Amino acid sequence: MTILHIDSSARTQSSVSRNLSARIIAQLGGGDVIRRDLTESLPLIDEAWIGSAWTPKDERDLVQRDKLSLSETLIAELRAADTIVIGAPIYNFSVPAALKAWIDLVARAGETFKYTETGPVGLLEGKRAILAIASGGTAVGSDIDFASGYLKHIMGFIGIHDVEIIAADRVMAQGDQAIAEANAQIDKLAA
What we know:
Rossmann fold, globular
């Protein structure tokens, strides 16, 4: 089994989502782990990137290929993985900017999804995703949680429909109880 482990918390120390995602990796046990820490700064897409992505692959010049090289690497990591584990805190009711940048770089027509007459179809079928979500005050699944539903939708959009959410939510209100409940969910995970 190959696992893609993505962390997106800006906090590298004492991060609840990082701790949860690391526990998930340990619980799954074994296999190869591809590690992607999004605090290492991803570029935002821009007009040149979009133009490069929409240029047919065999017509791209060196500058366009270079512009897409990181995106190609990130997509290759997704393709190589059987399971994707994403550690995601909720920042201001949504995902961190670094995680949104990653999504923009990997959600590419013709690469991770395609357009059909009936709508878009994901191309990364047969994979599993586990989302380790932490929040200070936002209840996961509530009307003000724009992170968990969005991440689940993005996974489905690129073809990953087996998605599980492990949540330590409202940590500022529930403290250790929220973390203990998330850890209990992790203990029940099967590889």
